[in-house]
C-alpha cells in the first residue's frame, strides 16, 4: 500500500533500482501479453479456443507451483542469482514460444516462462527495497508503479506487435527481458542481504492455519472469476467482430489502467475507512454483478467493454485487499505466507481459462460469465463463513514494507 512519508525521493534512486524496476515492468507485462493475440493464435495454428486458453493454464500453473519453492531457493542462493536465473529462463522460453510451429509448442514454452516469472517476481521487491534510497516506503511505491505499468502495457504491447504477427509479442518480450538481464548484471553490484533460510515444507504447512486457509480458499475462487474476465472475453469480443489484436490490446490496456489505479489508490482509501473483510464482502458481490452483466450483454460490444473496464476497477481493489488480509491473518513469516497464498491463487487462475471456454463452446457465449459470477459468489461465501478466522486481519496494524511485499506477490497474479 502506498503510504510513504518520503515520496519526494522516489525518483532519486540508484541505477540498480531502476534496472530491477524496468525488468519488473516487463515481467508483469507477461500476464496480459497474450490476451489480444489469442484469436490470432487460434486461427494461425488451427487450434480450438480451449486449446489456446492453455497458454494461460500452463503459465499460471507452473508459476503457482514454483511459488511454493522460490523463497526456499532465494534464501539459499541469494536474490541477485535468483533474479538473473528467472530473467534468463523468461528470455529463453519467450523466444522459443515465438519460434513454435504448433499451439502445443507455445503452450509448453509458456510453462517454462511461468517458472522464470515465479523466480523473478518473488525476489524483485526485496531487491528494490534493499537497494533503494529514501526508505522502504518509496521503494514500494516505485515497485507498485512498475507492477501497474506492466499490467497495463502488456495487452497494449501484445496488441501492437500482434497486429504484425502473433509471434512478435513473444520476441519483443524476450528482447526486453534480455535488456533487463544485462542491466541487472551491470548495475546491481551489491548482493542484497540474505534472509534466514526457510524450510521447503513451510508454505504447505502454512495453508493449514485457519486464517491463511480461509484466504487461500477465497483466492482460488476469486482468481477463477478474474481470469474468466481476462481470458474468455477476447473470444466473446471476436464473435462480435472485435477480434483484431490492436483492438483487443487497447480494450485490455484500459482494463489494466483501471486495475492499477484502484489497486494503488482506491483500496488504501477504503481500508482506511472500514475493515478489510467488510471491503471484500462489499466488492466481491459487485464483481459477481459485473460478470452477470457481461453475460446479459454478451451480444453488445459497448456493454462488454464497459464490463471489462468496470471489472478492472473492482479487481484492483480486490487484489490489494485480499493480499493484505492473507498476510495479516496469521503471525507466519511474510515470505512463507506470500509463497503459500500466491501459489494457490495462481493455480486457481490456471483452471478458469480452458474451463470457461469449454463452457462457452458447450452452452453458449453467456455461460462462461455466469460461471465466473458463480465462483466469485463462492469466494464471497468462503470469506463470509470464515470471517472469525480473519479477526487478526481486520485488527492488524499495517507495516509498509511487509504489506508492500505481500501486495506485490499477490497482484502479480
How is this structure best summarized?
This protein is mainly α and 413 residues long. It contains 16 helices and no strands. The relative contact order is 0.17.
Description:
This is MFS transporter. It is a multi-pass membrane protein. InterPro entries: MFS, MFS_dom, MFS_trans_sf, Tet-R_TetA/multi-R_MdtG-like, YfmO-like. It is a single chain. With 413 residues, this protein is an all-alpha fold. It has a single domain (7-411), classed as Growth Hormone, Chain: A (Up-down Bundle), CATH 1.20.1250.20. Helix content is 79%, strand content 0%. It has 16 helices and no strands. It has helices at residues 15-32, 38-44, 49-77, 79-99, 103-131, 136-162, 168-187, 202-206, 210-238, 245-271, 276-296, 301-328, 334-363, 367-385, 391-395, 400-411. Helix 4 packs antiparallel against helix 7 (168-187), helix 5 runs antiparallel to helix 16 (400-411) and helix 13 (334-363) runs antiparallel to helix 14. It is globular, with a radius of gyration of 20 Å. Residues 1-8 and 397-402 have low confidence and may be disordered.
Rounded average pLDDT: 86
CATH T-level topology = Growth Hormone, Chain: A
Largest sheet: none
Helix percent band: over 70%
**Distance between the first and last residues' Cα:** 17 Å
Indicate how many domains the architecture comprises. Answer: 1
Name of the CATH architecture = Up-down Bundle
- The total strand number stands at 0
CATH class: Mainly Alpha
Task: Report the structural category.
Answer: mainly alpha
How many DSSP H or I helices?
16
Roughly what fraction of the amino acids lie in strands? under 5%
Gyration radius (Cα, Å) is 20 Å
Query: What shape does the CA trace take?
Result: globular
| CATH homologous superfamily grouping | MFS general substrate transporter like domains
The run of helices and strands is HHHHHHHHHHHHHHHH
- Uncertain runs: 1-8, 397-402
Keywords: Membrane, Transmembrane, Transmembrane helix
GO molecular function, one term: transmembrane transporter activity
Pfam family, one: MFS_1
Subcellular location: Cell membrane
Amino acid at each position: 500500500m502506498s503510504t510513504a512519508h518520503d515520496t519526494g525521493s522516489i525518483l532519486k534512486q540508484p541505477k540498480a533500482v531502476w534496472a530491477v524496476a524496468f525488468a519488473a515492468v516487463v515481467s508483469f507485462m507477461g500476464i496480459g501479453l497474450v490476451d489480444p493475440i489469442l484469436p490470432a493464435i487460434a486461427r494461425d495454428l488451427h487450434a480450438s479456443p480451449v486449446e489456446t486458453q492453455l497458454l494461460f493454464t500452463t503459465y499460471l500453473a507452473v508459476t503457482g507451483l514454483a511459488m511454493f519453492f522460490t523463497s526456499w531457493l532465494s534464501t539459499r542462493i541469494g536474490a541477485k542469482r535468483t533474479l538473473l536465473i528467472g530473467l534468463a529462463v523468461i528470455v529463453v522460453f519467450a523466444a522459443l514460444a515465438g519460434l513454435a510451429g504448433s499451439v502445443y509448442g507455445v503452450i509448453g514454452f509458456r510453462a517454462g516462462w511461468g517458472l522464470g516469472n515465479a523466480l523473478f517476481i518473488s525476489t524483485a521487491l526485496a531487491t528494490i527495497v534493499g537497494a533503494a534510497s529514501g526508505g522502504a516506503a518509496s521503494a514500494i511505491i516505485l515497485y507498485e508503479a512498475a507492477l501497474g505499468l506492466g499490467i497495463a502495457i502488456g495487452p497494449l504491447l501484445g496488441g501492437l506487435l500482434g497486429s504484425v504477427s502473433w509471434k512478435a509479442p513473444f520476441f519483443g518480450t524476450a528482447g526486453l527481458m534480455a535488456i533487463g538481464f544485462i542491466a541487472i548484471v551491470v548495475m546491481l553490484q551489491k548482493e542484497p542481504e540474505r534472509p534466514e533460510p526457510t524450510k521447503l515444507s513451510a508454505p504447505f504447512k502454512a495453508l493449514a492455519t485457519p486464517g491463511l486457509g480461509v484466504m487461500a480458499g477465497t483466492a482460488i475462487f476469486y482468481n477463477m472469476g478474474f481470469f474468466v474476465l481476462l481470458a474468455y472475453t477476447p473470444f466473446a469480443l471476436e464473435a462480435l467482430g472485435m477480434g483484431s489484436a490492436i483492438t483487443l490490446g487497447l480494450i485490455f490496456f484500459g482494463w489494466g489502467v483501471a486495475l492499477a489505479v484502484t489497486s494503488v489508490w482506491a483500496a488504501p482509501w477504503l481500508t482506511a475507512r472500514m475493515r478489510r473483510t467488510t471491503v471484500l464482502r462489499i466488492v466481491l458481490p459487485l464483481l459477481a454483478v459485473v460478470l452477470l452483466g457481461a453475460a446479459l450483454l454478451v451480444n453488445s460490444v459497448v456493454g462488454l467493454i464497459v464490463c471489462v473496464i468496470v471489472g478492472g476497477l473492482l479487481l484492483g481493489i480486490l487484489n490489494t485487499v485480499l493480499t493484505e488480509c492473507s498476510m495479516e491473518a496469521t503471525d507466519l513469516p511474510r515470505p512463507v505466507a506470500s509463497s503459500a497464498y500466491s501459489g494457490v491463487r495462481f493455480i486457481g487462475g490456471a483452471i478458469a481459462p480452458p474451463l470457461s471456454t469449454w463452457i462457452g463452446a458447450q452452452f453458449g457465449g453467456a455461460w462462461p460469465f455466469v460461471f465466473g459470477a458463480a465462483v466469485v459468489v463462492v469466494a464471497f461465501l468462503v470469506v463470509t463463513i470464515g470471517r472469525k478466522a480473519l479477526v487478526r486481519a481486520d485488527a492488524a496494524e499495517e507495516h509498509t514494507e511487509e504489506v508492500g511485499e505481500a501486495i506485490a506477490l499477490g497482484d502479480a497474479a
